[in-house]
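job 3f2a | input accepted
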Amino acid sequence: MKADPAVQRRLLDLADADAELNRVVHRRRTLPELEQIGEAEREVQTKRDELVVAQTAFNDLDREVKRLETEVDNVRKRETRDRELMAAGGPAKQQEELEHELQTLERRQAVLEDEQLEVMEQREALETNVTKSREAVTEAEQRLADVQARRDEALHELEVAETRKQHEREVLVKALPDDLVALYERVRGQRGVGVGLLQGSRCGACRIELDRHALNEVREAAPDDVVRCEECGAIMVRENK
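job 3f2a | predicted structure (241 res):
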């Protein structure tokens, strides 16, 4: 295959464009924000789980407070009824029984009110935990939103760079012979690199030194001959040729 030396040198520009496009792809896959998002998502889930635990404990204790309130209320109603019965008078035995029941109710009420006070203090502490857990969830969700925004911004910048470089590549390809581009694409698909600058006796694509025989063949080739590296198969662009 033959191609003007200047045309062959433009393959290096094409290779630079492809290298930049590869870097964009790699950068997109390895954005630090992707790992940060994973960490932030796990943190959000952890904080939400903690909130569920705190809310469940609060709800359980809240139900206990309401149960005690109901019991205290029932005791008070029973006490009021007994006092009304005593005030209405009646047989001495009934009055004695009512007096005994009132004493029992007073003791029961005192116990319930002590329990109620203790449980209400515990509920207040748990309510504080719930509030703090909600705030922690909100903060974690905000951190997740922030890193997602940074990811989206980075992806947008990469998309812009990719579009610009892809356009540049299309312009380069249109200016090159079809058969030369086809060879370049075939080698690049097989080896990852389709062309390299021959620097001294080293192939710029695979960085391997050519042996004396191969180097002599390259030097003896016509300036418009498309020469390839015997090691990697890449097109070798020669300087001053």
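job 3f2a | The longest strand covers residues 195-198.
job 3f2a | closed
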